[in-house]
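Your task
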Amino acid sequence: MSVSQVTDASFKQEVINNNLPVLVDFWAPWCGPCRMVSPVVDEIAEEYESSIKVVKINTDDNPTIAAEYGIRSIPTLMIFKAGERVDTVIGAVPKSTLASTLNKYIS
């Protein structure tokens, strides 16, 4: 499963109303650490394709959702399950850290 881009308009449908846990990558094109974590997010999407959905949202183009979730630094990775935010990882973290965080929410 590839990583989908979501917008302020599609966030509710793609993330909140999703039956699977969803990993949301809040990022911006000018953000160096975002570019560092992007391949990790892509790998997670491939490895967990049957268990989770992975989406990215550009905070510059979609400020409403970023503000709603209090995004103050990027990259911020949030995990949603059953429409609720259940965890947040801030910064460019190693794949192992992200994977262990995700594993807590995969049934």
